[in-house]
């Protein structure tokens, strides 16, 4: 069920599409068609171009092209936040899967990371790019991997870790913070990784895009 007025509420994961110049068709085809499809402003053009129609367009409408008259939209003024931030503030769902926010343009990717750092809730957000997938987390996670697979762990603010298993460089007792300590290019040692997160602002796990299914399964089952 999906309902929206000023807040869009869904009991299913929501797929949110932005306008970054990356390929979204293949990733979209791998996601459930029962998940609501929402566009962030110019993301509507990206969807219509591949023959998909969003259920709703959210944003200040300054980058979307001409849209069908009957396409629902939530116009929001203001230049102090991005369209991605506008969407994140108005979508309540067990998971948001974002396409067209990671990679493409560096400033857009940094802006997306900035938006994730400001989230006040614990619900996961997954961003899928052309080559990488990233999940924003607060709390623990356990997911399937392959030995040698890249598993980078980045703090989104300041984050302490209790413990971990299945990583070449374990996180036990570490406190990470941007500009101090991060976990670039760690790797899995076997078929499972578990991360125990302590107090903190949250963190991101970045992996090759092929790990998308494993990360979605992990956050949906937790």
Comma- or semicolon-separated keywords:
single chain; 222 residues; alpha/beta; Rossmann fold; 2 domains; 9-stranded mixed beta sheet; 5 helices; 16 strands
Q: How would you describe this protein?
A:
With about 220 residues, the chain is of the alpha/beta class. The protein folds into two domains: about 1-130, 3-Layer(aba) Sandwich (Rossmann fold), CATH 3.40.50; about 140-220, 3-Layer(aba) Sandwich (Rossmann fold). The protein has helices spanning about 25-30, 45-50, 85-90, 105-115, 210-220, and strands spanning about 1-5, 10, 15, 35-40, 55-60, 75, 90, 95-100, 125-130, 130-135, 140-145, 150-155, 160-165, 175, 190-200, 205-210. The strands form three sheets. A nine-stranded mixed β-sheet has the order 6-5-4-3-8-9-10-16-12.
- Strands, count: 16
SSE run: EEEHEHEEHEEHEEEEEEEEH
Main sheet characteristics:
9 strands, mixed
Number of helices: 5
Distance between the termini: 21 Å
Task: Indicate the CATH class of the largest domain.
Answer: Alpha Beta
CATH architecture of the largest domain: 3-Layer(aba) Sandwich
Q: What do the pLDDT scores average to? A: 90
Shape: globular
Q: What does the radius of gyration come to?
A: 17 Å
Q: Provide the CATH topology of the largest domain.
A: Rossmann fold
Number of domains: 2
| Low-pLDDT residue intervals, each spanning 5 or more residues | none
**What fraction of residues sit in β-strands?**
25-35%
User: What is the CATH superfamily of the largest domain?
Assistant: Thiamin pyrophosphokinase, catalytic domain
What percent of the residues sit in helical stretches (DSSP H or I)? 10-25%
Content-based structural category: alpha/beta
Strand arrangement, major sheet = 6-5-4-3-8-9-10-16-12
